[in-house]
Amino acid sequence: MRVTNSYKVRTYLKSLNQNMEYLSKLQEQQSSGQKLLRPSDDPFGVSRTLNISDSITRNKQYGENIDEAINWINTSDEALDKVSEYLKRIYSQINAAANGTNSETEMFAYKAEIQECIEGIGDMLNANYNGSYIFAGYKTTEKPIAVEKNSTGVTGKLLNTGDQNLLCKEISPGVTVSINTTAYDILLTANDLDEADPSYDPTTDTAESLSKTFEKLMEAMTDPAKKENLSSDSPEFSFLDKITAARDNIARLRAQIGAKQNRMDAASAKNAVENENMTEVLAKTADIDIAEMSMLVSVALATHEYALMVGSQILQQSLLSFLK
């Protein structure tokens, strides 16, 4: 086979072009920090990278849901803690007011203190997190509780306009958790009997809404004819027992919230580990090894420079160069 000079030149230029393409690709990878610059580089690797990236994006959203759930639950717990403190204060004022030797001035002071506590409870049940009323069910844009007042001040009635719906957050694929407690749960209007229930008997039933208990309490504090109800053991009144039952209900709700807090903390830790693991896999799949890439670029540059040197020796000299 006759090897002509033109054949050598074509072969050389083809090899030189391949070296330049390889070097260009390495330099592009080095500057971008990415192994996979286009699907043709590694179709399987690109597909895997996209899947992992989507998983990381979804997992980050789950992380945001978990963080919001934690903040919502913590806000609920703090509000219920304050409600319990108000109920404790009301209990002590009822206990003191039930003493038959109290003067009119002292009774007025006890009443004023209880009214302030009831208003404080209304404020706590209107607790707000990030623009949402946390005890309103789905009606998060509206205050759920209004404290009724008349010419003598707070009547004790708490008007609840919220609903009983539970708000849920998805914290991992297919796993949702309810994050809210409703004012109905706190005021015991969801499950307990009140005067709207045909089976309610005020002489035997002690289960009633906290709002109704407050109404009867304020009547007893305001009307001298009903003052004796403060110390009554009748199931219709027995205010100390009812306030104690209300505090027990708050403690039960806070226990449920505490369990959710623990679950959210565990979910948050799991989510962080998953993000870390997936990010590491993504880096191994898509990112370059800087040290390795620097070595490859150096070798490719040396190869290219050597090819240029060899080419200067095999390329055909021009007639002018020969005559020199």
From TrEMBL:
Top-rank taxon: Bacteria
Residue ranges occupied by any Flagellin C-terminal domain in the UniProt entry: 240-323
Protein name: Flagellar hook-associated protein 3
Keyword field contains Coiled coil: yes
GO molecular function, one term: structural molecule activity
Coiled coil: 243-270
Gene Ontology CC terms, in alphabetical order: bacterial-type flagellum hook
Gene Ontology annotations of biological process type: bacterial-type flagellum-dependent cell motility
Localization of this protein: Bacterial flagellum
Key words, A-Z: Bacterial flagellum, Cell projection, Cilium, Coiled coil, Flagellum
